[in-house]
Amino acid sequence: MVVIIKPDAKKEQVNTFLGWVRDMGVETNVVVGKELTIVGLIGDTTKIDFDLLRSISIVDDVRRIQEPYKNANRKMHPEDTIIQLGERQIGEGFFHVIAGPCSVESREQIGGIAAHVKESGATFLRGGAFKPRTSPYAFQGMRAEGIELLVEAKNQTGLPIVTEIMSVEHLPLFEEVDIIQVGARNMQNFELLKELGHLRKPILLKRGLANTLEELLMSAEYIMAGGNRDVILCERGIRTFETAIRNTLDISAIPFLKSRSHLPVIIDPSHAAGMAWMVPALSRAAVAVGADGLIIEVHNDPQNALCDGAQSLRPEEFEALMGDLRALLGVMGKSLSADEAVTAE
Ligand code: PEP
Ligand code: MN
């Protein structure tokens, strides 16, 4: 961090300021110029409150030299993180498709969809058991029973499962869940993130509806600071002034996140679009832009789905999309990880 001192600051004021900074365990390098005094802060500046520093009367401006996230930062970890989950690897070079319904609705529904998506080449099964709904009167998910049904579907198909956690209290129910999803609405639920930091299980962290990419990386940092380094970032569309589409898919988030961080980055085209017909186009864009995978909603009966039917692909549409994705990945010299994992089983 570099602090620019106002030209009219008195020497004693500057010394008091320097003492205050040094008391926080940070060294200073003072450069006194003709007009400006510049103070370089050297060491661990993570504990220094940027806004507080800026508000000090003799401080003219503060510039960050380094990003505030350390564990998630590619500068600290130049190699791509490859998450090992059983036989599967997640990260650069391993393209995964997580597919399944928005919500688990019944044994037949989740079992049927799981078999279909597996057949089409998905590597993970998704399904919400605890649902964050805007209305308290809308279907809230099958909760604990939903997780049990997901585990049944996992045992039947061999597909590892991904499901969302909404409260720390529910953590004991997630024992057999392979990847825990933190939904957009909980991206900044810091107590939850801290708790997930103590697990040794991958976390799929979705970007909040109105959060910046730096905030997303800071949330990943919360998990990683606790020791859990297996975080998958997910761009799922953000709120913009556009109302024609449920959310705006921020496609530039992918190259940005992949350049700043070593963590795997995937795209959720379903929540971004809100309309099933748009999902294939956005999925193809995800491959082209270098995402490490997709999470896609698939339902056997979208018209009667209890949640997000409008954006859910039918199994046959999903199958067709998987064919396109395979072709596109092939053009880019990549392949669908599902193919390898299925043959390995
Ligand atoms: C979901 O994946 O079903 C979900 C609720 O996603 P998001 O948190 O991105 O809205
Ligand atoms: Mn959904």
What would you say this structure looks like, in words?
Residues 341-345 have low confidence and may be disordered. The chain is of the alpha/beta class. 34% of the residues lie in helices and 18% in strands. Helix 3 (107-120) packs parallel to helix 4 (143-157), helix 5 crosses helix 6 and helix 9 (279-289) packs parallel to helix 10 (315-331). The protein has 11 helices and 14 strands. Strands 13-12-11-10-9-8-7-14 form an 8-stranded parallel sheet. The chain is elongated. It folds into 2 domains: 2-63, Phospho-2-dehydro-3-deoxyheptonate aldolase, domain 1 (Alpha-Beta Plaits, 2-Layer Sandwich), CATH 3.30.70; 83-344, TIM Barrel (Alpha-Beta Barrel). Strand 2 (27-32) and strand 3 (37-42) form a beta hairpin. The protein starts with a strand and ends with a helix. Manganese (II) ion is lined by residues 102, 271, 297, 307-308.
CATH architecture title of the largest domain = Alpha-Beta Barrel
Number of strand segments: 14
Helix content: 25-40%
Report mean pLDDT, rounded to a whole number: 95
Catalogue the unreliable spans: 341-345
Read across the widest sheet, the strand sequence of neighbours is 13-12-11-10-9-8-7-14
N- to C-terminal distance: 51 Å
Order of helices and strands: EHEEHEEEEHEHEEHEHEHEHHEHH
- Highest-level CATH class of the largest domain: Alpha Beta
